[in-house]
Write a structure and sequence with these properties.
- The complex is a heterodimer of chains A (253) and B (268).
- Chain A is mostly helical and 253 residues long.
- Chain A is 82% helix and 0% strand.
- In chain A, 32% of the residues are buried.
- Helix content of chain B is 33%, strand content 23%.
- Chain B has seven helices and ten strands.
- Classes of the chains: A mainly alpha (253), B alpha/beta (268).
- At the A-B interface, helix 7, helix 8 and helix 10 of A face strand 6 of B.
Chain lengths: 253, 268
């Protein structure tokens, strides 16, 4: 068994153990069932809700918003990163701001976003993009910084235009480093949108969780939470596997 | 000291070339250099480390403009752009990790107007020429350093360059591989008929491969000696056992020793 596979199995066993421990604690009354319901019930509640179709609209709404925020964040963050990388003076000014960006709680802007964009999808997408785009920009900058100078020389020897240099050499060379930005962007877009739905939306999964919480419907709340958690883990897992494939081709094949 | 033009027409001509790097302080890296490289010649440049050999190569291929003087390739003056017909192989590994060997080699022709069939033929030929057939679908990470450098040479070959510039291409390889790669390079030079300029720090490599070796001074790099080897065109690494080989290497070293001491901060 490879070391990688062993680590994976131990990881799964650890998570399963924790879930089992929570199950036992809930079933034996060590944890108050009014506070946390057993994981098996969370799972049952999730299946009920997803299969009943009551969540269909919320699922489409929330995940389309997250997808839109993610794509916009990736596009704007990459473009912003490329621009900053080219304009070293601008970068000198912006770099410290970018580094301290995540110390600013983006959510404090939500009243402003609602005032500017109204209720609906736009402020949620904005929150997602505001959360995710700087991560993409930071990883783009570090990715571009790490591009091998000899490859840039090669581009000049082959008389490539700036666009072709970017597309054929710079971005592929930087791709592994850009991936860390993509993974962060997905997480931040998800957090931004779902948290936004909590506070400023009348639809979507975030709103449904918040509604269940306010109605003391623990079963519904935990079922929904588990669903969001699983989708997030799966989406990140897909990126992780994709990244792993790229990295393997570049390291040992 | 200037290069001695032979009977063949000059392929590359450097006239009064100087290269400074902007400061402060301004660094005089190279020159003045007057040099004529003959068409079809195998010309090597040796010099102490930091003497401006790589700067000379950048100037020769048009990547860097000289601060003063001019560089002419096939009679046309270069203006900070690499002209058509020039191929460069760098010291560092410049294979693209995300492309297979075949894709790496074909990269050189991505912007060409050749037909797909012609491109495929040239790529296959270059891969075969460099002995990479078994590895055509491998990725650079699966190859040794020597093999990766072959990929880079093959990528240059598909362009059918008339001038091939190599900047210490075997610097990172072990001695046996270097000798064998030297043989490959000689074969490539003979079969393509291209002019080859090799920058190297290895005196034996320069003596073994070249028609003519230019010895550079410590910075600012100038040519302080030009050595004609007078080897036959048909030659390979076995030439190291020729009686004249030792004398050539010794001559290069005697020219270079004083300059090398200078770069180490010692007086000869």
């Amino acid at each position: 068994m490879t070391r990688r596979r062993a680590a994976l199995l131990v990881r799964i066993a650890l998570l399963a153990g924790l879930v089992l421990l929570l199950e036992i604690c809930c079933r034996t009354g060590i944890v108050d069932p009014l506070t946390v319901i057993p994981p098996s019930e969370m799972f049952a509640s999730m299946i009920e809700r997803v299969s009943s179709g009551e969540l269909d609209e919320g699922i489409i709404q929330t995940f389309s918003t997250i997808a839109l925020a993610f794509v916009l964040a990736v596009v704007s963050g990459t473009l912003g990163g490329v621009l900053l990388h080219r304009q070293s003076r601008l970068r000198d000014i912006v770099d410290p701001l970018l580094a301290s960006y995540y110390s600013v709680p983006t959510f404090i802007f939500y009243p402003l976003l609602v005032a500017l964009l109204g209720l609906g999808k736009a402020p949620l997408v904005s929150l997602g993009v505001l959360s995710a785009a700087p991560a993409v920009m930071i990883s783009t900058l570090s990715g571009l910084d790490g591009v091998s100078p000899v490859l840039l020389k090669l581009a000049r020897v082959h008389r490539l235009s700036p666009a072709r240099t970017l597309w054929w050499i710079v971005l592929p060379d930087a791709l592994p480093r850009l991936f860390s930005g993509l993974k962060l962007a997905l997480s931040y877009a998800l957090i931004g949108v779902i948290a936004g739905e909590f506070i400023l939306s009348g639809t979507g999964l975030g709103y449904s969780i918040s509604y269940a919480y306010q109605s003391f419907d623990n079963r519904a709340m935990y079922g929904l939470m588990l669903f969001v958690l699983l989708v997030a883990v799966i989406a990140n897992g897909v990126l992780y596997v994709w990244e792993g494939r790229l990295a393997r081709r570049r390291s040992t094949g | 000291m200037s290069g001695t033009p032979g009977n063949e027409p000059s392929h590359v001509t450097l006239s009064g070339v100087d290269r400074n790097y902007e400061g402060p302080p301004v660094v005089h890296a190279l020159g003045p250099i007057d040099l004529q490289i003959r068409t079809g010649e195998f010309f090597s440049v040796v010099g102490p480390s930091g003497c401006g050999k790589s700067t000379l190569l950048d100037v020769l291929c048009g990547l860097v403009r000289p601060t003063s003087g001019s560089v002419r390739f096939e009679g046309k003056e270069l203006h900070g752009e690499v002209p058509d017909g020039v191929g460069v192989v760098f010291q560092e590994d410049s294979s693209m990790r995300w492309l297979s060997v075949r894709q790496n080699v074909a990269f050189g022709l991505r912007t060409s107007s050749l037909s797909q069939q012609e491109i495929a033929e040239r790529v296959e030929h270059a891969i075969r020429f460099m002995g990479l057939m078994q590895f055509a679908d491998h990725y650079p990470a699966q190859l040794s350093g020597g093999m990766r450098q072959r990929v880079c040479i093959a990528r240059t070959l598909v362009l059918r360059p008339r001038l091939i510039l190599l900047d210490e291409p075997f610097g990172a390889l072990d001695q046996q591989t270097r000798l064998l790669m030297g043989d490959e390079l000689l074969r490539l030079w003979r079969e393509t008929g291209a002019t080859v300029v090799l920058i190297t720090h290895a005196l034996d490599e320069a003596a073994m491969l070249s028609d003519r070796v230019g010895v550079m001074s410590a910075r600012p790099g100038r040519f302080i000696d030009m050595v004609e080897t007078r080897w036959p065109r048909e030659r390979d690494s076995r030439i190291v056992s020729e009686p004249n080989f030792g004398a050539l290497t010794a001559r290069l070293w005697s020219s270079l020793r004083e300059e090398s001491l200078k770069t180490m901060g010692r007086v000869a």
